[in-house]
Amino acid sequence: MSREQMLGEGMTTQVSPYSYRVGSLKGILKHYADCFHLDCLECHRFNPVVFEHVLFCEDNRNCRIPGCLSIARATGRIMETA
């Protein structure tokens, strides 16, 4: 689904517990569709990769660590190990 489709009526009228916690889902989706800045904190609250990094690295900002395992796993640079 494209970012433009996510802004459609169906996605913006539903509110999940996650969206309630981070603010209005409609506002986040609108911002996410318009923003092209990779370090934007508003986008990172909506991005599950950065959300995972925040939980594991205890960092509430953008990851600036080149060896972050959360981001490496998401980009396919490392595989999950058992």
UniProtKB/TrEMBL annotation:
Domain of life of the native organism: Eukaryota
InterPro entries recorded: TAZ_dom_sf
Protein name as catalogued: Uncharacterized protein
Source species: Caenorhabditis remanei
